[in-house]
Amino acid sequence: MAGLTAVAAVLGLLAWDMARRRRIAHAGWWAPLVFCLTGVLGVTLALRGGTSGRAECVANHDLTEPLYTTQGLWNLAMFVPLGLFGVLALRRPLPALAGVLALPVFIELTQALAPFVSGICDSADVEMNAGGGALGVAAGLVLLRGRVAWRAWAAPTVAVTAVLAVLGVVVCRTAVTLNHMDGSSVREARGDERVAAERAVHQAFGDRYRVGAVRISPGLDGYNGWMNIQFAGGFPAELMWPGGRRLNVDFGNTAGMGSMEKVGYTVPGAGTPHGTADAYRIARTYMRAHYAWAESASWHATRAVHDSAGSGWVTSWRFKDRGVEMPRSLDVRINPAGRVYGMQVDLGPTRVPLPAKLISARRAEEIVREKRRKGADTTGLRIEAGPLTTERTMGHTGPWRAVWSVVVTDTRCTPDADGDGCEPMTESLDAATGESTG
Q1: Burial profile 198-212: b = 16 or more Cβ within 10 angstroms, e = fewer
Q2: What is the DSSP letter of 50?
């Protein structure tokens, strides 16, 4: 940063000297203008972290969000001096305004496309930069009391701005992938959003818990976001948002919970389970009280589990068609004390259209193995296809498709001292085409 400041100061002095030698009016204002311009370009294009040349931009639909973030306000303030000194140096408001509107677009597209520039292309940055520049232009006009050349350079400014606008649109449509988001940071739920969270928790647990904070993590392209819901001393619940179709609860994510046996939702009339049959009866009692539709599922099973969350049993209910698990489902985890320690429910449809032909589990495993052979030795890899499930291509809005989840485990891998480093990898394949869905 010190080096950038020194460079900006030198370039500012050179700009002032050049303007003075050419007898340009108001030459003194060129020094701070070039100083600020150099600083902005240096901070946004040279001193940013991240991955370069990703050819992606975030299109933030929440226009008010950056007004409530530190980064957004910083982006606003950063461009105010540019607009101000632009008007003071040029005394021509139209080119100054055009400059502060075009520069943010140039910066963000450069961050997206240039291989030597790091940073995240975000429409919220354009919004706040342009807004700050416009405020600076307005401040300059106030200081000059409107005594500027309003029509000077008007025609060439309009022409150049139009050309740049067309180029920008062409680049965005042909060279950049836009990831649409309903906000780019975690925010508090509002109005109907909070009502949806409270309704989901009430259906799962009745009046047992009072909902506290509800935070929304927006997803890409307006889908696959989540609500994090606070109750029972922590944030144990996640609700798929928008739509609220899927609720996941894990009481292991609660604060001050003590031992596993002492936490979770108590099912009325439930005792201590002594095996799979007892655990199933408790889970069934819970299901009938809260999600009675699962009684008509075409398949259910209870299995013992032993993982990082401890021991217990999970009972699953599924609706199947041609061996494909439909979206609607329910999983209930019972801990050794007979309490509901976790659950996941999907309120999607019990039947969705399926392609006439679907690849087999064996073929899915072969496809993954063939892909692995292209990059490395597959000896020692255990490749197994899991259940054939359904998912939507665009969260809660796109068409449904059948998907194979193929788990790849390297049996020759040696974990590190903490037991990590050898976790299985999962690859999802479209069961109709065999193409990767990732």
Answers
A1: bebbeebbeeebebe
A2: S
